[in-house]
Amino acid sequence: MERRADEVLPGLWALPVTIPSADLEIVHAYALRVDDGLVLVDLGWGNRSSLASLEERLAELGASVADIRGALFTHGHRDHYGLAAAVRERSGAWLALHPADRIYLDDRRSRSDWLRSLSEEAGFALAEPGGRAPARSEPELPVEPPDRPLADGDVFELGSWRLLAVHTPGHSPGHTCFVVDPGRVVLLGDHVLSWTTPNVSHWPWSDGNPLGDYLDSLRRIAGIGAGSLGLPGHEERIPDIPARVAELLAHHESQLDDVTELVGAGHETIAAVAERLRWSRPWAELGPLDRLMALGEAHAHLRELELRGRLTRIDADGRPRRFALA
Question: Which of 6, 108, 178, 303 is 20 to 30 A from 172, alpha carbon to alpha carbon?
Answer without folding.
Answer: 6
